[in-house]
Amino acid sequence: MKLDVIKLDGGKAGSVDLDEALFGLEPRADILHRMVRWQRNRAQAGTHKVKTRSETSYSTKKIYRQKGTGGARHGDRNAPIFRKGGIYKGPTPRSHAHDLSKKFRKLGLKHALSAKAREGALVVIDTAESEGKTSALAKQVKNLGWKRALVIDGATVNEGFAQAARNIDGLDVLPSMGANVYDILKRDTLVITKAGVEALEARLK
What we know:
- This protein has 205 residues and is an alpha/beta fold.
- It has two domains: 2-45 and 97-204, Ribosomal protein L4/L1 (Ribosomal Protein L4, Chain: A, 3-Layer(aba) Sandwich), CATH 3.40.1370; 50-90, no CATH class.
- Helices cover 35% and strands 14% of the residues.
- The chain is built from seven helices and six strands; from the N terminus they run ββαααβαβαβαβα.
- A six-stranded mixed β-sheet has the order 2-1-3-6-4-5.
- Helix 5 links the parallel strand 4 and strand 5.
- It starts with a strand and ends with a helix.
């Protein structure tokens, strides 16, 4: 598929041929859903923790005699049945990550790119370069109509552009190796440089 290439100032810079195998697929919601779940589960800290009866700070003295009271048998106040006692079968630190094959992850990224192309929310720009002035870049972004955009560059991101974009709300910048399904779907507009297109095609072949 052919797409027009623009400059940051809005001018035209020719066109580019996009690989149908990356940008021309019929997006599948089930694949994208599995990819987003995989990413979010890997990002989850899993540091939730409760204290068991062996960790709570309370007396370990037997609270009353074993027999003859008419009440249930109890050892100490750390039992889960008591207020301020330990928690029974509560959460412990663990990883929420699960496995997903490399082949499937590549497929998920292709479907995410295709979804943006299908929506008409894919923009290809010549280069993503700036002198590092946030005000100048913010004006260009506003003129282009990007409200919530993700910019994917080549192997490395231009330092001046990254610095200028850092303080613009709703604008994210990633190198091609950082391109991922969650960030692509989260933003309304996907902006890829020509170098980024080449890098993605090399990565996903």
